[in-house]
Amino acid sequence: MTATATPADQRGEPLLRVQGLKVHFPIKRGIFVDRTVGHVRAVDGVDLSIDRGTTYGLVGESGCGKSTLGRAILRLVEPTAGSVVFDGTDVAALRGEPLRKMRRRMQMVFQDPLGSLDPRQNVESLLSEPLRAHGLDGGNAGIAAHIRTLLDAVGLPVAALRRYPHEFSGGQRQRIGIARSIALEPDLLIADEPVSALDVSVQAQVVNLLEELQERLGLTYLVIAHDLAVVRHISDVVGVMYLGSLVEQAPADDLYEEPLHPYTRALMSAVPVPDPVVEGSRERILLAGDLPSPANPPNGCRFHTRCPWRQETRCDDEVPVLRELAPARFVSCHWAEEIRDGVLRPKAPEEVAAIQGVHVAATGVGPVETDALVQGIDQPIERT
Ligand SMILES: Nc1ncnc2c1ncn2[C@@H]1O[C@H](COP(=O)(O)OP(=O)(O)OP(=O)(O)O)[C@@H](O)[C@H]1O
């Protein structure tokens, strides 16, 4: 299995370019006749691009639209608007056989391999299924040889072939899931929480496997994850999502060292500093209120209802665009420069809560949610 150069590659185009992508799910009501009474704006105007052979990490609170974005790129859900250009072709416009062929080049790695692998099929059958479905040349002997190569690539013994998913550990099952996803030699893997169901030591092995495969096969990754340590370790570029939109995008180290958007700052402020004596402790930024409903998002900047730096009335009325504040550093905040330079001071969470009529104790990205998001950040991923 080797990565092949394509015309888009030669033009230096990113492998994937998403523009203005929206996925709005209708909310239906009624006993006899379904009436659409509103829409959940799960993804609401996302632009991003991923260069070949690189990893884009996507983070954000539960429900902000990460999985829906990944599924829309693969056309597992229909986009409401926007384009997904993969290797020079708009996937959103494809139907029938061309769509099937394109799907072969974009595969998904799921969080829960047990849920995504048919328990009645042994590993041989699970791995040969996509090969047969897409008519791999070489007959049974060719398929058998291909499967052995796949097992070897993910570090499983040939003896695994006759066994069933429930006979494996979580980490081994994820190896089977990964083998299946690379069976058709895709260019892009979308991994939705690929290690969050695994023990920390096993997480490191699977992350390392993904990195090895990327190097060997020239794969491009979109990795969706809650664990900021995993995302920092594996990603070249990180995007932060809030209520269906990207609020910040930056090279991984830059984002972690100097977050620019107030929401990213709040996420990062909960990350424990490895050596507080040397580096000084970080001031924790608490947010007021819960994540608003994506069916009824706030006007203006979507984050303004919880933002400690909110300025009336611009933040309430004017939607900020994702703009390039410094090379490769994109942020959607009207006041990013003033916040970065310390010209604007944050309000205390109690003050924001009083203005909004909400409780600080109910923070979504506060003590509860953020701790879940940052678990393991201080535990470096070791190579095995
Ligand atoms: N098929 C669907 N029909 C209606 N609403 C949906 C559907 N799928 C997702 N949603 C809603 O869209 C929003 C975004 O969901 P999504 O699963 O993409 O978020 P997420 O960031 O991946 O969350 P998590 O980290 O919990 O998986 C949520 O409000 C969710 O309830």
From TrEMBL:
<dbReference type="GO" id="GO:0055085">
    <property type="term" value="P:transmembrane transport"/>
</dbReference>
<keyword id="KW-0547">Nucleotide-binding</keyword>
<dbReference type="InterPro" id="IPR050319">
    <property type="entry name" value="ABC_transp_ATP-bind"/>
</dbReference>
<comment type="similarity">
    <text>Belongs to the ABC transporter superfamily.</text>
</comment>
<dbReference type="InterPro" id="IPR013563">
    <property type="entry name" value="Oligopep_ABC_C"/>
</dbReference>
<protein>
    <submittedName>
        <fullName>Peptide/nickel transport system ATP-binding protein</fullName>
    </submittedName>
</protein>
<keyword id="KW-0067">ATP-binding</keyword>
<dbReference type="Pfam" id="PF08352">
    <property type="entry name" value="oligo_HPY"/>
</dbReference>
<feature type="domain" description="ABC transporter">
    <location>
        <begin position="16"/>
        <end position="268"/>
    </location>
</feature>
<dbReference type="InterPro" id="IPR017871">
    <property type="entry name" value="ABC_transporter-like_CS"/>
</dbReference>
<dbReference type="InterPro" id="IPR027417">
    <property type="entry name" value="P-loop_NTPase"/>
</dbReference>
<dbReference type="InterPro" id="IPR003439">
    <property type="entry name" value="ABC_transporter-like_ATP-bd"/>
</dbReference>
<dbReference type="Pfam" id="PF00005">
    <property type="entry name" value="ABC_tran"/>
</dbReference>
<keyword id="KW-0813">Transport</keyword>
<dbReference type="InterPro" id="IPR003593">
    <property type="entry name" value="AAA+_ATPase"/>
</dbReference>
<dbReference type="GO" id="GO:0015833">
    <property type="term" value="P:peptide transport"/>
</dbReference>
<dbReference type="GO" id="GO:0016887">
    <property type="term" value="F:ATP hydrolysis activity"/>
</dbReference>
<dbReference type="GO" id="GO:0005524">
    <property type="term" value="F:ATP binding"/>
</dbReference>
